[in-house]
Amino acid sequence: MATICVHALVTGRVQGVWFRQSTLEEAERAGLVGWVRNLPDGSVEVMLQGEEKAVHHVEAWLGQGPELATVADVQSETVDLSEDLAAFSII
Questions:
Q1: Closest to 42 measured CA to CA, from 23, 67, 17
Q2: Which domains does the chain have, with CATH numbers?
Q3: Alpha helices in the chain (DSSP H)
């Protein structure tokens, strides 16, 4: 299957609820590289790269998030592959 890269913006109650750590764990379980970070407006930004099926699995998980999160919306788009991603990290 193809390798893809997806950029996502998650809004709702997604900061202070272990969203970044849970995303890291989901991405690592799926064998993805990329990053997750909090934004000043209270949203969470995510970059996922790897096998297409695995990326779409974690992308779908973002719509639910961890137990304490309340996700209002996930906006995502496929973007060009990033050459400098070697692991998944919280930034």
A1: 17
A2: 3-90 (3.30.70.100)
A3: 19-30, 52-62
Q: Is 13 a catalytic residue?
A: no
For residue range 19-38, list pLDDT tens digits in order: 999 999 999 999 999 999 99
Per-residue model confidence (pLDDT) at position 1: 73
CA distance 32 to 11: 22
Residue 52 CB coordination number (10 Å): 13
More confident residue, 1 or 70: 70
Report the alpha-carbon distance of residue 84 to residue 60 in Å, rounded: 24
Which residue in 13, 20, 29, 37 is the catalytic one?
A: 20
73-89 exposure pattern, b = at least 16 Cβ within 10 A, e = fewer: ebebeeeeeeeebeebe
Residue 29 designated active-site: no
Averaged pLDDT of the chain: 97
pTM attached to this predicted model: 0.95
